[in-house]
Prior knowledge:
With 134 residues, the protein is of the alpha+beta class. It has one domain (5-132). Helix content is 35%, strand content 15%. The chain has seven helices and six strands; from the N terminus they run H-E-E-H-E-E-E-H-H-H-H-E-H. The protein has helices spanning 5-8, 28-34, 66-73, 80-85, 87-95, 104-112, 129-132, and strands spanning 17-20, 25-27, 43-47, 57-59, 62-64, 127-128. It has a four-stranded mixed β-sheet with strand order 2-1-3-6. Strands 4-5 form a two-stranded antiparallel ribbon. Strand 4 and strand 5 (62-64) form a beta hairpin. The radius of gyration is 15 Å and the shape is globular. The relative contact order is 0.19. The model has no long low-confidence stretch (mean pLDDT 76).
Amino acid sequence: xxxxxxxxxxxxxxxxxxxxxxxxxxxxxxxxxxxxxxxxxxxxxxxxxxxxxxxxxxxxxxxxxxxxxxxxxxxxxxxxxxxxxxxxxxxxxxxxxxxxxxxxxxxxxxxxxxxxxxxxxxxxxxxxxxxxxx
Length: 134
């Protein structure tokens, strides 16, 4: 398996960073406009694992916990409370986010915040952002 455009297209509007095999980091839009898609295999996206949804992080100077933000701001989304209501259900969604019936507004926020919704980290096709912070 390799990183394909279908894995990263949802991140295009949100400034996703990608790391090349020699540790060089570029913005995804620069990469898409400068390289043929075949060369995407030389880069890995830098993403948050879904387990980071319960951790505080900062986006554009704002600190928040994504799971709490989603709960407050998307509370009227159909089936939203079902997503976060029970630990065993949450664990299922963490492992199968795209195979489940999750509303697109949630998926879009996960793209915006650079969460790995395609299990690319587990497949060795993406870099866990937490590994770069050490």
